[in-house]
Write a structure and sequence with these properties.
307 residues; alpha/beta; globular; binds threonylcarbamoyladenylate; binds magnesium ion
């Protein structure tokens, strides 16, 4: 099941699907331009076809083959944040199958930073569609073992690249009259984009990022965002920073970052949820993070995980 980079590229070239590491989370990769391959990805994840995939490229020039138009601000943001955890939603060219984009006339593209991912894209020779390598609505994988648990046996291989450095998915951004609109908060924060002189808008509920379903990123154990007044028997705590006064009442505690660092918390988020999920707790309570740095993106995932 665990395979080398060159084996993965060969499998991809012959129409297979493999899990690959990126700096954010592991992705389930396949040829973004081949509908049969895309159908295999949806089937393995049991993901509904209306939820579009992100297309991964290794060179900026590849973007021009995929999109009909590159707004000036999209180009500037790509220059600043690529390779890295930023996904740009742009009008698609015909070459991108409707299946890849969930029937939308736009395509989401990102250039990952992790060298293994770049090598695999280059060796395959085509852009790779790669949704997070988990079953639909379940926890995203940040290690090869996480992928194995959920998809082992349903896919053609897993490239083990260790733990994902960032740990939370890319920021998905579209453009409305050149204004960047955040469809999904992620590793590149709104503040980071505003710091380089852009005004950004965040999207309200009901907007066209179909992946922003209410329920998402969920462990099997019931998860509640926020702390209870009375801690029920056999509860777990996903903590951040200083522990609450009633912390000794929790059966298990995992702290995302004792020092209260949201970047460290993002890197630990999914592994901590996978771990808490394995303890057969009655419930998990997650402390809400301050909305600075990656706090916003982490709260977004935690609130969906609890639906
Ligand atoms: O960090 C990441 O983005 C990871 C790694 C593997 O690259 N991938 C990832 O893919 O998180 P996925 O499929 O789990 O999430 C893709 C998100 C979904 O919320 C989807 O709805 C949104 O991107 N998306 C994709 N295409 C879109 C489009 N054309 N318009 C709006 N949203 C789109
Ligand atoms: Mg996902």
């Amino acid at each position: 099941m665990y395979i080398s980079i060159s084996k993965a590229s060969n499998i991809l070239k012959s129409g297979g699907i493999v899990a690959i590491p990126t700096e954010t989370v592991y992705g389930l990769a396949g040829n973004a331009l081949d509908e049969i391959v895309i159908a295999k990805i949806f089937a393995a994840k049991e993901r509904p076809f209306f939820d579009p995939l992100i297309v991964h490229i290794a060179e900026f020039e590849e973007l021009e083959n995929l999109v009909a138009e590159i707004p000036k601000n999209a180009k500037l943001l790509a220059e600043k944040f690529w390779p890295g955890p930023l996904t740009l939603v742009l009008p698609k060219k015909k070459i991108v199958p409707d299946l890849t984009t969930g029937g939308l006339q736009t395509v989401a593209v990102r250039m990952p930073k992790k060298q293994i991912a770049k090598d695999i894209i280059k060796q395959a020779g085509f852009p790779l569609a790669a949704p997070s390598a988990n079953m639909f609505q379940h926890l995203s994988p940040t290690t090869a073992e996480h992928v194995m648990e959920q998809l082992g046996g349903k896919i053609d291989g897993i490239v083990d690249g260790g733990t994902c450095e960032v740990g939370i998915e890319s920021t998905v951004i579209g453009f409305e009259n050149e204004i960047p609109v955040i469809y999904r908060p992620g590793a590149i924060t709104g503040e980071m984009i505003e710091d380089i002189g852009y005004k950004v808008r965040s999207i309200e509920a009901g907007h066209p990022s179909p992946g922003l379903l209410d329920k998402h990123y969920s462990p099997s154990t019931l998860l509640c965002l926020g702390l209870p007044d009375e801690v029920p028997h056999n509860s777990g705590l996903l903590a951040f920073g200083k522990l609450p006064a009633n912390s000794e009442r929790f059966a298990k505690i995992l702290n995302l970052s004792e020092s209260g660092d949201s970047t460290e918390a993002a890197a630990n988020l999914y592994a901590a949820l996978h771990k808490l999920d394995s303890f057969r707790l009655g419930r998990i309570f997650a402390m809400r993070l301050p909305e600075t740095g990656l706090g916003n993106a982490i709260n977004d995932r935690l609130s969906r995980a609890g639906k």
